Amino acid sequence: MEHSDGEIAAPPEDRLSALPVDILIDILLKLRDAAAAAQTSGLSRHWRRLWAQLPELFFHPATRPNGIRAAIESNELPALRRLEVKVIHPTRESLAAWLHIAAPRLSGDLRIIKAAGQSETEDEAAQGAPLELPCFENATAIRLDLGNLALAMPPAGVFAGLTDLFLSGVDLRGPCMLGDAVSSPRCPALRKLAVHGASGLANFAIRSDSLLEIELKHLKGDGALGLGNITIRSESLLQIGLIKVHDMQQLTVLAPALQVLNVTYCFAHGSTYSEPVANICAPQLMCLYWTDAYEPSSTQFGNIRNLKWLDTYPFLVYGSDSRKLSNDWCLGLMRRFESILYLTFILVYPLDITNKQYLMEDITRFPDIEGLALEIKPKGHSFGASVFHVLRMCTGVRRLRFTLMDVISHTEAQSACPSDCVCDQLPNWKTQELALHCLQEVTIHKLNGTEHEAALIKRLFDWATVLGNMTIAFHDSVPKRKAKEFFQMLQSFSRPEICMKGPHFA
């Protein structure tokens, strides 16, 4: 380069390459793209082999399987601490090309994530022989999202370092059952197991001394077999979550240290359900999430005197005789307990309540509770009467949390709830007295700023004579100006001794 006076300027100093190697490696890691990191070899001789020293490798969906394999084989470190591969259309061949090479090299996290793109049907994804997962002896966490790909667990080997296993969209095949693979002999350090959207779990039995949490969502069995019988025996298991396990027939949990049990839509799914047969022996159980069918004669919880938190099946406020069955599940489970610390109760309104029965009168008692999380799906209807009915049976509640679970437009609200709608013609809760002499704290989430909400909150100030704190949060769709005006209106209802907290209006 030549200056105007004819002198030749010195080339600019390469200060970046002069940085310590560990800083340069950190710069390459921030690219989160192994191919882009490899391209930096052309910058200078100093950068030529830096990409081969990366402890973490990230591959975008466009990376070819042979390119992933080559990058792993070229890595000069004794072990990788993370390997993340995004794929659009995972196949047995594309994954098998590099998985067995990666297994002995990984001492950290493996993630295979199905990226957004062309989707396949379950039949298309499950065709052909299953992909056999190699045994990652030193991996600490494995997360596989395979888009309904057929998968076989390794028949031998110990996942000695594995603490976290997440499987999503897999069709489990092969002679080795998932329960055998994740039990203590082969996963001695496993703390959390999550399986979502999987099929092939006709029988699932886990025996683990280390598991702290199990979460099963949207699982299917083999055709009509369903998940079949589940037996879980653990001395130290702290949490189990079973969510939408279709066609489950029987659940048995023997876990002396279990603290959290979550069963959601396993026996009940869609418009059908199978009679739940369950035997839960968990004397240390603290949190029970049973959003599912419940029959007192066939669902046994044993001695769970330490229970602190209970979630039940949603209660339908308006319905027909055919829909009252699910309400019976909810009420039957609550009758099982005389007192608990905290209850989550969900009230659901159908969009059209014309000629529907008002079902709240079926609720005749609640357990003695200190905290109530009341989740409401009003579909535009007035929900003050149903909330009043619940609160008059929970007069000892100290903490109350409202969450509005759905948002509909103003036009939809008018269509669902005309001025002469039956929802606002119930016994006049707007004038009836209610003494909530213990209620000290109220939190309301996802307000929409409707007249129905304002009417209930105004009454709440009258009922809660010792209320000290109220916190208000609006749904994200509510315009800031409307939220500010609504919050100021609520403040006008309040008393001076009540501390009202709301969003910051800049």
UniProtKB/TrEMBL annotation:
Top-rank taxon: Eukaryota
InterPro entries, per database record: F-box-like_dom_sf, FBL15-like
Protein name: F-box domain-containing protein
